[in-house]
Amino acid sequence: MVIDPRTKYGGEPENSPLDRLEGYLRSYQFRMRFTEQGQLVSVGDGIAWISGLPSARMNGLLVFADGSRAMVFDLAIDRVGVVLLDDSQALTSGMPAFLTHERLSMVCGDSLKGRVVDPLGRPLDGLGELREVRWRAIEQKSPPIIQRDFVRKPLYTGVKAIDTLIPVGKGQRQLLIGDEGLGRSSLAVDCVINQRGLDVQCVYVLIGQKRSSIISTINTLRRNGAMDYTTIVVAEASALPGMQYLAPFSGCTIAEGWMHAGCDTLIIYDDLSTHAKIYRELSLLLRRHPGREAYPGDIFSIHARLLERSTALAVESGGGTMTALPIVETEQGDIAGFIPTNLISITDGQIYLDGNLFSAGYRPAIDIARSVSRIGGQAQHQQIKAEAGRMKLDYLQFLELEVFTRFGTRLEASMEKAIRRGRILREIFKQEQLNPLPVELQMAWLIAYNSGLFDNIELSEVVKVMHHLQQCLQKDPTSLEESRERWLEKLSNWFDEIVSTGVP
């Protein structure tokens, strides 16, 4: 007996090929069968047109006679537009095409930890086939309101400016926005590295990037021990447009599987500007009506449908969370572009990287005044929230006062003190790449700064003092639950040591 592979092609298979065969034989019935057979009309640029499939539906999966797959992307009166999922050189005009009546699915499960896969779940790292996986449909509805919970738990990024002033909560969607080359991806990588030991499963989606950049990201995560809890979904620049379009949805499906199993997950989309351009390319090739900047009219709903799947589930629904950090590119610092404004309106806040700060040598180049976290403060630890609130006000006042120093005007003593404290704070915010810091250190320097312990420290010594504080905390760990008085007592002793003996 010859079994037609189309009956289960690309669907949700059982545990093994033998199980699929046994299941097929058990359910087999001898009867007349009717099937639709389409015909390939034209193919090129990653898309194809097919005639003769009246039952085709959007996002439906079909298979050609040579075994290659495609996804229905456009429905016309007399033909169907599809995006190719397999790069086959055998596709020619007139080749038969068949509907599978299956949903495109993605592998899920713990066996994906430490693996690099493509948007269809095929391994790219040479470590062998995936074992003990589950299959989950890529197209999923976002959880309804009744299944969601408030954002209550903090997700620490290890970046001082973010964890104190722009906090991120588990289940939040926080946008990383800025021009190319300002360190958006570096921030995302630092955030993934900081999850080591915090029981957060990470998914990093790389869309349309060069192979050298992809390898660099993978090696960085591997060197820092982050691949043990991270899955990387790759659709490189040379991949078919359909694969690049599917990449964020496939990554979201992996993270969603862990979320519904009760785990905390973090997903990075690097980046959605490229994804929008890929979707525009496919839509124009399929002759859809262009809108603003030639993007199709539904580009907003595409990203909204993706990001709305990130949330915090209620305990009754599993209690898992999915935190999303989408990355978007601006041009010349213009956040009023079409795609950036769309994503700003969908997400719960944005972290804006400024080119002028980057050029001035401030790393990370986060513009505090134009960055915001709308719901992250609800998840922030209460002591950190109280200390950061006082400090943020001082910093924003400093940014306004610093403008006057450019004119060489003579300032009052109080203004000079405020400017000096602001410059010290800006030095504190400097942070080396691939050096995420523990939250206890954030608490330490916040209390030290608000208590005036940094006031007598020279600007050139601030970084060394921060390193010394970190070493002191490693020798004498202090919990966030300790009282402020206990924290201040320890910090005063440490700073007295610095003043008396100098910075180590």
From TrEMBL:
Q: Does the keyword DNA damage apply?
A: no
Where does the record place it?
A: Cell membrane; Membrane
Q: Which UniProt keywords apply?
A: ATP synthesis, ATP-binding, Cell membrane, CF(1), Hydrogen ion transport, Ion transport, Membrane, Nucleotide-binding, Translocase, Transport
Q: Which family does it belong to?
A: Belongs to the ATPase alpha/beta chains family.
Q: What is this protein called?
A: ATP synthase subunit alpha
> What is an example of a Pfam family matching this protein?
ATP-synt_ab
Recorded GO cellular component terms are: plasma membrane; proton-transporting ATP synthase complex
Q: Broadest EC class? A: translocase
List, in alphabetical order, the Gene Ontology terms for molecular function in this entry.
ADP binding; ATP binding; proton-transporting ATP synthase activity, rotational mechanism
Q: Where is the ATP synthase alpha subunit C-terminal domain?
A: 380-480
Q: Which reaction does it catalyse?
A: ATP + H2O + 4 H(+)(in) = ADP + phosphate + 5 H(+)(out)
Positions of the site: Required for activity? S371
Q: How does it assemble?
A: F-type ATPases have 2 components, CF(1) - the catalytic core - and CF(0) - the membrane proton channel. CF(1) has five subunits: alpha(3), beta(3), gamma(1), delta(1), epsilon(1). CF(0) has four main subunits: a(1), b(1), b'(1) and c(9-12).
Query: Which EC numbers does the record give?
Result: 7.1.2.2
Species the sequence originates in: Desulfopila aestuarii DSM 18488
Topology relative to the membrane, per the entry? Peripheral membrane protein
Q: What does this protein do?
A: Produces ATP from ADP in the presence of a proton gradient across the membrane. The alpha chain is a regulatory subunit.
ATPase F1/V1/A1 complex alpha/beta subunit N-terminal domain location, by residue?
36-96
User: Mind telling me which CDD domains this protein's record contains?
Assistant: ATP-synt_F1_alpha_C (cd18113), ATP-synt_F1_alpha_N (cd18116), F1-ATPase_alpha_CD (cd01132)
Positions of the ATPase F1/V1/A1 complex alpha/beta subunit nucleotide-binding domain:
158-373
TM helices/strands, residue ranges: none
